[in-house]
Amino acid sequence: MRRGRPIRPAGAAAALALAALAACTAPGAAPGEDRAARAEGGRPFTVVATGDIIPYPSIIEQARRDAGGTGHDFTRILAGVKPVVAPADIALCHMETPYGDEDGPFTGYPLFRSPPQLARALRTTGYDSCSTASNHSLDDGFEGVRRTLDALDAAGVRHTGTARSAAEAARPALLEAGGARIAHLSYTYGTNGIPVPGDRPWAVSLLEPDRVLADARAARRAGADVVIVSLHWGTEWQQAPDAAQKELARRLTAARTGAGRDIDLLIGTHNHVPQPYEKVNGTWVVYGLGDQVASFVPEEKRSGNEGSMARFTFAPENGRWSVAKAEFLVGHSDTGPPFRVVRATAENFPEVHARVREAVLSRGAGEDGLTEGR
């Protein structure tokens, strides 16, 4: 399949934040009219989303060994999921931790600082955009935010959720696939008590329902055909979605402007364990993907090495794009040695596969059409 193509917004003023997307609208045509015309000539496209990337020191050391002792190479760590990620038209990651300088130092919990070489590995694996709003976004202050986004830019990976300027914070990551324009937004419930800089309140997108809806509607007005929202939310180590997640999911999926929904897909992160998928108000919600790159070893936290990979096929219908097929696959951080992220099946990791499958389907998603992908 054709890879998702970034739409590169230009200009620094906040008033021009979505100009690149809006400029793609046909002259004289309202966004809704142009959207219907694109859908008429559009084709299906796939979106793959995977869970939290949290390079603990043992994983950083593995990447150093994979690089031959100089620098860090994460491509071999991620190679096992490339067959799922690379064929997708749009592939979304969740980059939970900030990057340090090229030569370090690099740190783990509670204040993470990860090697920036990870950004190149994400692109090599096939990722097009990453959500970066998390409770660890400010672990290394605003400089950590800047280094992370600089590295992702250099690697050709779009990003959303943290920002180096007010104008950057005002626009989503913008991509294109199947003739559709896709806006990717990202928010976090908090930053572990680290204050957002008073002179840079836009540095991290905080999870405020009114703001999420306002941003989604702004993207839609500017011409987005599909709006995908990544949410860093919920209760750590809890498989079931908590009351706040369920209430917010209901509110966001119920939002409509005219006849159309404001948000097309909700993707959750942060919980460290796989949580269920559910169709809410006709919109798919992934409460929590779990971790993709992590190294929790204790028995009571073994599910922290397990997660799902979501794959949704959007197709044009009646002037809009909507989810025509919903799938999940199972991922596993195999501590090895060597440490590798793999796709888990009933054959290679039967216990992991069974646990993740049970979690994903625990709120009746199978009855709504969710299937396990191949």
What does this entry show, briefly?
The protein has helices spanning 19-23, 31-40, 57-66, 75-78, 82-85, 118-125, 141-155, 166-169, 209-221, 243-254, 350-360, and strands at 5-6, 45-53, 90-95, 129-131, 158-160, 173-177, 180-188, 226-232, 256-257, 260-261, 265-269, 277-280, 283-286, 291-293, 306-317, 320-334, 340-344, 371-372.
Strands, helices and their partners?
Layout: E1 5-6, H1 19-23, H2 31-40, E2 45-53, H3 57-66, H4 75-78, H5 82-85, E3 90-95, H6 118-125, E4 129-131, H7 141-155, E5 158-160, H8 166-169, E6 173-177, E7 180-188, H9 209-221, E8 226-232, H10 243-254, E9 256-257, E10 260-261, E11 265-269, E12 277-280, E13 283-286, E14 291-293, E15 306-317, E16 320-334, E17 340-344, H11 350-360, E18 371-372
Parallel strand pairs: 2-3, 2-14, 3-4, 4-5, 7-8, 8-11, 11-13, 16-18
Antiparallel strand pairs: 1-6, 2-15, 6-7, 9-10, 12-13, 15-16, 16-17
Shape: globular
Largest sheet: 9 strands, mixed
Tally the helices: 11
Total tally of structural domains? 1
Distance between the termini: 16 Å
| Top CATH class | Alpha Beta
Short key terms for the protein model shown above:
alpha/beta; single chain; seven-stranded mixed β-sheet; 26% strand; 374 residues
Would you give an account of this structure?
With 374 residues, the protein is of the alpha/beta class. The chain has one domain: Metallo-dependent phosphatases (Purple Acid Phosphatase, chain A, domain 2). The protein has 11 helices and 18 strands. It has helices spanning 19-23, 31-40, 57-66, 75-78, 82-85, 118-125, 141-155, 166-169, 209-221, 243-254, 350-360, and strands spanning 5-6, 45-53, 90-95, 129-131, 158-160, 173-177, 180-188, 226-232, 256-257, 260-261, 265-269, 277-280, 283-286, 291-293, 306-317, 320-334, 340-344, 371-372. The strands form 3 sheets. Strands 2, 3, 4, 5, 14, 15, 16, 17 and 18 form a 9-stranded mixed beta sheet that branches. A 7-stranded mixed beta sheet has the order 1-6-7-8-11-13-12. A two-stranded antiparallel ribbon has the order 9-10. A hairpin with a 2-residue loop joins strand 15 and strand 16. Mean pLDDT is 92; it is low at 8-17 and 23-28.
